[in-house]
Amino acid sequence: MTREAGNGHTAGDTPRVVLGVSGGIAAYKACELLRRLTESGHDVTVVPTDSALHFVGEATWSALSGNPVSTRVWDDVHEVPHVRIGQHADLVVVAPATADLLARAAHGLADDLLTNTLLTARCPVVFAPAMHTEMWEHAATQENVATLRRRGAVVIEPAVGRLTGVDTGKGRLPDPAEIFEVCRRVMARGTLPRDLEGRHVVVSAGGTREPLDPVRYLGNRSSGKQGYALARTAVARGARVTLVAANTALADPAGADVVPVGTAAQLREAVLKAAGDADVVVMAAAVADFRPAAYAAAKIKKKDDEEPPPLALARNTDILAELSADRPRPGQLVVGFAAETDDVLAHGRAKLARKGCDLLVVNEVGENTAFGREDNEAVVLGADGSETAVPFGPKEALADTVWDLVAARLPGRAERNSTDRG
Ligand code: CTP
């Protein structure tokens, strides 16, 4: 059955999303996901399990979605045959997905409307698990997750943090904004490959600050959003991710190890340490080229009768060039970013050659572009002469293109092992 025939509508119609909600305290966060989905133009049918309704009632789901809500296979059989909900969907997202729901989905049970929907859906399916750490780590859950992923479903890694009550650990439902972003990517691409499974990637993000005295620094306007998008998308594609974050104010991406740093020297130390066993290093951080030559231990005071003191600068190491010239691991790929204000491609090509990296993501910046924004547009230049244009769109889309290009260039495992030995 083709998608058009199965859905009964053609591309261009409002995309139809089924939001499955299973019974966990995080069900209330699905309201925020639902709001994001409807506000961005999706027609959402909410299918809560019976136990989900203990946490958030039917009236809330139906008011927020603008659609009727049913939980049982035998509700409204004449109007909404249960098989049609799954067949008509362009995406099914289950958030939160409890250990029990994952188990039932993995085993193909069909004992309520949500599991029936999962069996009849032929569109991409996303699960956003939430449960206690022990339940997530249990071999049964891990095998169920592996089964679902093998069949093509996207299972998002849970976040680490406060769980119900005083417990903390891995098992928290990722931020609704993050789940929404995954849904958007899955709908755009059909699925998310797990082509970085078993790989360690290091991403630097944010902007360094070079202290002048205890209260002042030289800094830049980088928000870190592009680096965080790279980290999030790499986690989703199966990588182990180390995110070296310089002065960012963003929520930790679920599943990434975050190493906070302040200065260029600290960022260099953290990146080189993590790069030792990394398959890829992506330098998305805006690293200061210069630092104040001297640090004043006490606050610099102005003197009315004197000229302002000159600001002497010292050069920071170019981490990207250093990593590219002397790869900590044989076969390692190195990716750089270049923010340019004019003559973008020419400067980008020259920079790629100068830095010696494998890929350089070049984007144009100015007063109102790129920095701090949600969207980005860029060209990715390859040392092999390739040139990939990435149209204006979410930073996640640019991140996915970077990972596509990286995955295509990574040495195969056998090849890598022989390089390691040799
Ligand atoms: N970079 C780095 N170490 C530095 C400066 C920059 O690793 N000390 C990296 C950035 O993370 C980015 C790339 O180099 O990936 C490009 O940075 P950019 O500042 O645009 O390049 P520069 O070499 O500083 O060139 P320009 O003369 O345009 O400032």
TrEMBL record:
<comment type="function">
    <text>Catalyzes two sequential steps in the biosynthesis of coenzyme A. In the first step cysteine is conjugated to 4'-phosphopantothenate to form 4-phosphopantothenoylcysteine. In the second step the latter compound is decarboxylated to form 4'-phosphopantotheine.</text>
</comment>
<dbReference type="GO" id="GO:0004633">
    <property type="term" value="F:phosphopantothenoylcysteine decarboxylase activity"/>
</dbReference>
<dbReference type="Pfam" id="PF04127">
    <property type="entry name" value="DFP"/>
</dbReference>
<keyword id="KW-0436">Ligase</keyword>
<dbReference type="Pfam" id="PF02441">
    <property type="entry name" value="Flavoprotein"/>
</dbReference>
<feature type="region of interest" description="Phosphopantothenoylcysteine decarboxylase">
    <location>
        <begin position="1"/>
        <end position="200"/>
    </location>
</feature>
<comment type="similarity">
    <text>In the C-terminal section; belongs to the PPC synthetase family.</text>
</comment>
<comment type="pathway">
    <text>Cofactor biosynthesis; coenzyme A biosynthesis; CoA from (R)-pantothenate: step 3/5.</text>
</comment>
<keyword id="KW-0285">Flavoprotein</keyword>
<dbReference type="InterPro" id="IPR036551">
    <property type="entry name" value="Flavin_trans-like"/>
</dbReference>
<feature type="binding site">
    <location>
        <position position="351"/>
    </location>
    <ligand>
        <name>CTP</name>
    </ligand>
</feature>
<feature type="binding site">
    <location>
        <position position="289"/>
    </location>
    <ligand>
        <name>CTP</name>
    </ligand>
</feature>
<dbReference type="InterPro" id="IPR005252">
    <property type="entry name" value="CoaBC"/>
</dbReference>
<dbReference type="GO" id="GO:0004632">
    <property type="term" value="F:phosphopantothenate--cysteine ligase activity"/>
</dbReference>
<feature type="binding site">
    <location>
        <position position="299"/>
    </location>
    <ligand>
        <name>CTP</name>
    </ligand>
</feature>
<dbReference type="GO" id="GO:0071513">
    <property type="term" value="C:phosphopantothenoylcysteine decarboxylase complex"/>
</dbReference>
<feature type="binding site">
    <location>
        <position position="355"/>
    </location>
    <ligand>
        <name>CTP</name>
    </ligand>
</feature>
<feature type="region of interest" description="Phosphopantothenate--cysteine ligase">
    <location>
        <begin position="201"/>
        <end position="422"/>
    </location>
</feature>
<feature type="binding site">
    <location>
        <position position="337"/>
    </location>
    <ligand>
        <name>CTP</name>
    </ligand>
</feature>
<comment type="function">
    <text>Catalyzes two steps in the biosynthesis of coenzyme A. In the first step cysteine is conjugated to 4'-phosphopantothenate to form 4-phosphopantothenoylcysteine, in the latter compound is decarboxylated to form 4'-phosphopantotheine.</text>
</comment>
<dbReference type="GO" id="GO:0046872">
    <property type="term" value="F:metal ion binding"/>
</dbReference>
<dbReference type="InterPro" id="IPR003382">
    <property type="entry name" value="Flavoprotein"/>
</dbReference>
<protein>
    <recommendedName>
        <fullName>Coenzyme A biosynthesis bifunctional protein CoaBC</fullName>
        <ecNumber>4.1.1.36</ecNumber>
        <ecNumber>6.3.2.5</ecNumber>
    </recommendedName>
</protein>
<dbReference type="GO" id="GO:0010181">
    <property type="term" value="F:FMN binding"/>
</dbReference>
<keyword id="KW-0456">Lyase</keyword>
<feature type="domain" description="DNA/pantothenate metabolism flavoprotein C-terminal">
    <location>
        <begin position="196"/>
        <end position="408"/>
    </location>
</feature>
<comment type="similarity">
    <text>In the N-terminal section; belongs to the HFCD (homo-oligomeric flavin containing Cys decarboxylase) superfamily.</text>
</comment>
<dbReference type="GO" id="GO:0015937">
    <property type="term" value="P:coenzyme A biosynthetic process"/>
</dbReference>
<dbReference type="InterPro" id="IPR035929">
    <property type="entry name" value="CoaB-like_sf"/>
</dbReference>
<keyword id="KW-0479">Metal-binding</keyword>
<dbReference type="InterPro" id="IPR007085">
    <property type="entry name" value="DNA/pantothenate-metab_flavo_C"/>
</dbReference>
<keyword id="KW-0460">Magnesium</keyword>
<comment type="pathway">
    <text>Cofactor biosynthesis; coenzyme A biosynthesis; CoA from (R)-pantothenate: step 2/5.</text>
</comment>
<keyword id="KW-0210">Decarboxylase</keyword>
<keyword id="KW-0511">Multifunctional enzyme</keyword>
<dbReference type="GO" id="GO:0015941">
    <property type="term" value="P:pantothenate catabolic process"/>
</dbReference>
<keyword id="KW-0288">FMN</keyword>
<feature type="domain" description="Flavoprotein">
    <location>
        <begin position="16"/>
        <end position="183"/>
    </location>
</feature>
